[in-house]
Amino acid sequence: MPVEVEYEEKKFTMVVYRISETEFSVLSLNSTFGRPKQYVVKWVGYKWICSCPDYAKHSEEMHYACKHIEAMFKAVKKIGWSKDGIEVEVVRGYKQFNGNGGSVEAVEGGVAPADVTE
Questions:
Q1: Backbone CA torsion sign across 55, 56, 58, 59
Q2: Using an 8 Å Cβ cutoff, are 68 and 26 in contact?
Q3: Which residues, in sequence order, are bridge partners of residue 39?
Q4: What is the number of other CB atoms lying within 10 angstroms of the CB of residue 39?
Q5: DSSP class of residue 112?
Q6: What is d(CA 74, CA 65) in angstroms, rounded to the nearest whole number?
Q7: What is the pLDDT of residues 6-65, one digit of tens each?
Q8: What share of the chain is helix, strand, coil (3-state, %, to 5)?
Q9: Alpha-helix residue ranges (DSSP H) falling in 2-114
Q10: DSSP 46
Q11: Alpha-carbon torsion 49, 67, 12, 57, what sign?
């Protein structure tokens, strides 16, 4: 019997704060853990990294962007050099596998690297 795949979109609301030219604090208001969580997104040598568990799982993938990195990219042009945070929404697609134990995984996709220090 073939496995049926459905896609579901989830919206995540985050508040992004600029700490420095190469470091941001991202507060995930409705995280997958069920309560607000704070993560650090920073530029390390040649790519943006995040302190979240999802990024740690995919850290070897050169162009992987977790939802916190996506939020930083969305917010960076609006923040400027202000220390005030800005609220952004990130939408992620998730695969729903029916008939296969009901496992769920994030759909591959990310944000192309960009120079946010302009």
A1: positive
A2: yes
A3: 26
A4: 23
A5: -
A6: 12
A7: 678 888 899 999 998 899 999 999 866 778 999 999 999 889 999 999 999 998 998 899
A8: 15, 45, 40
A9: 53-57, 67-79
A10: T
A11: negative
